[in-house]
Automatic annotation (TrEMBL):
InterPro entries: UROD/MetE-like_sf, Uroporphyrinogen_deCOase. The lineage of its organism: Eukaryota, Viridiplantae, Streptophyta, Embryophyta, Tracheophyta. Residues 2-155 form the Uroporphyrinogen decarboxylase (URO-D) domain. SUPFAM superfamilies: UROD/MetE-like. GO terms for molecular function: uroporphyrinogen decarboxylase activity. This is Uroporphyrinogen decarboxylase (URO-D) domain-containing protein. GO terms for biological process: porphyrin-containing compound biosynthetic process. It comes from the Eukaryota. It holds the Pfam family URO-D.
């Protein structure tokens, strides 16, 4: 995994997101034993060869593991929509960058709902060290005009 990330960086990647899809199937103690050391190994290896490459870690359903995920040494912790952004910011602290976490289902709602959720997420994330994003990928069938609206609102934020 580390070699693949290094390959991506050597070929122009400006940031890389690591997705640990199964991490949250583990209890916290098992995460510490079976996932955390390997994530740290990947991140440490990449940071030795590419110290400036931002590394993002995403583990869907990771609300119970946020503090442990931060121990990996990753640059950005990506939060899914099941974590309240204010709670995630509080638990990770102001020095850890966060990404997310608008519910992708919101994109099936009205433009007003989308706008409200974006502003709520940004407000709760606080100033700086936040990458606005969905809390997971776009769901099949999402109206394209609502995706466009998401980006237009995001580009207009002046916080």
């Amino acid at each position: 995994m580390a070699r693949y990330i290094q390959y991506q960086a050597d070929n122009g990647a400006q940031a890389v997101q690591i997705s640990d899809s199964w991490a949250t199937e583990l209890s916290p103690v098992d995460f510490e034993r079976f996932s955390l050391p390997y994530l740290k190994q990947i991140i440490d290896t990449v940071k030795k060869s590419h110290p400036e490459l931002p590394l993002i870690l995403y583990a869907s359903g990771s609300g119970g593991l946020l503090e442990r995920i931060a121990l990996t040494g990753v640059d950005v912790v990506s939060l899914d929509w099941t974590v309240d952004m204010a709670d995630g910011r509080r638990r990770l602290g102001p020095n850890v960058a966060i990404q997310g976490n608008v519910d992708p289902g919101v994109l099936f709602g009205s433009k007003e709902l989308i706008t409200d959720r974006i502003h709520d997420t940004v407000r709760k994330a606080g100033r700086g060290k936040h990458i606005l994003n969905l809390g997971h990928g776009i769901v099949v069938g999402t109206p394209e005009e609502n995706v466009a609206h998401f980006f237009e609102v995001a580009k207009g934020i002046k916080y």
